[in-house]
Prior knowledge:
This protein has 333 residues and is α/β, with parallel strands linked by helices. It has two domains: 9-177, Thiolase/Chalcone synthase (Peroxisomal Thiolase, Chain A, domain 1), CATH 3.40.47; 181-330, Thiolase/Chalcone synthase (Peroxisomal Thiolase, Chain A, domain 1), CATH 3.40.47. It has helices at 25-29, 36-43, 57-72, 96-104, 120-133, 157-160, 209-213, 223-244, 262-271, 283-286, 293-303, and strands at 9-17, 22-24, 47-49, 81-85, 110-114, 139-147, 165-174, 180-188, 196-197, 220-221, 252-257, 312-319, 323-330. The chain is globular. The relative contact order is 0.19. The mean pLDDT is 98. Coenzyme A (COA) is lined by residues 34, 38-39, 42-43, 118, 157-158, 161, 196, 221, 223-224, 226-227, 230, 260-261, 264, 288, 319. Coenzyme A binds at residues 34, 38-39, 42-43, 118, 157-158, 161, 196, 221, 223-224, 226-227, 230, 260-261, 264, 288, 319.
Amino acid sequence: MTRRFAIPVGITATGQFYPDRVVTNEDFAAYLDTSDEWITTRVGIKERRWVEPGVASSDLGAKALQMALDRRGIGPGDLDAIIACTVTPDMLFPSTAALIQHKIGAKNVFGYDMNAACCSFLFGLTTGAAFVASGVVKRVAVVGCDIMSSIADKSDRNTVVLFGDGAGAVIVEQVEEGMGILDFEHYLDGAGAPHLLMPGGGSLNPPSHETVDKKMHFVRQNGQEVYKNAVKGMSDVSRLMIDRNKVDPVDVRLFVAHQANARIIEAVAKRLEMPMERVAMNIVHYANTTSATIPTALHQSLEKGALKKGELAIFAAFGAGYTCGATLIRWAY
Ligand SMILES: CC(C)(COP(=O)(O)OP(=O)(O)OC[C@H]1O[C@@H](n2cnc3c(N)ncnc32)[C@H](O)[C@@H]1OP(=O)(O)O)[C@@H](O)C(=O)NCCC(=O)NCCS
């Protein structure tokens, strides 16, 4: 059975923001045992953006959201809720959503942070859409913002090269009949937790000199294990969207997958028999920005005219948890 909302709900505008500072593969090769060749061929990244000290996720998120509001031709006062999707909140509390609300000057909104790791934006989009579909909320901003450089160990070639900072935002509201989110499927599997995590700083391992000395405040992952599961997870759940909705794969004009490794995206596209010209790819310039990968890749695809009103797109993501999911959407504008 498809998971379709009773009221058609879709995305009506997008926005993005990246910090100016470009960090290239050569910058890492200058002090680590790595090379542009290794990073390019194994992961498909050439450069990424990193913030300067003192810039937080809410700063990036607020700018991306402001662009989405401008594109929609509305103001912050037209929002009912803000969902900030992030694994790198400004601080544990208050929520990054509250800080974004304050920065953009929204009034009379509610909101909170959503952390489903690299699926945060996808799950946040569904949550925002469900509020609108309830009929009692008109407009929700879903903002994916992460400063992954804040949790990347700068001395570890295995992880530091993979991540970037950035933000993407969408406005979610009721759309024409037959448009918007047609179906979604999302999964949680905590058995995958040991393979991708940041163990320090929470209630299990509160910050201490010991947790800092043991580098527990950085991302850790079992790369090959995550790679295998990401390819299978995103392929299977995307295939489910196609089969369950009796969609001809040829009619899927745009496939936007979480950008963790270009080889993962290519492998998923191959399994889905999706030609690469229909696959959004921004990892080469921005690396893995976690909650921001899908909304920014979507925004950039729209700028290129890759998706038009009435056409179908699939969003898919896989991340820590494990979390996994896909969403089928008919573009509404
Ligand atoms: C992380 C990842 C890029 C590593 O690529 P890989 O081909 O699996 O490489 P491996 O981990 O097997 O490492 C192979 C070798 O390359 C080395 N290596 C790792 N990073 C390197 C780097 N930046 N430069 C040079 N060598 C590197 C490793 O140390 C290892 O060396 P060894 O054989 O001497 O021990 C890949 O596994 C991946 O993308 N995994 C999934 C990531 C993901 O989706 N994360 C989710 C976040 S949402």
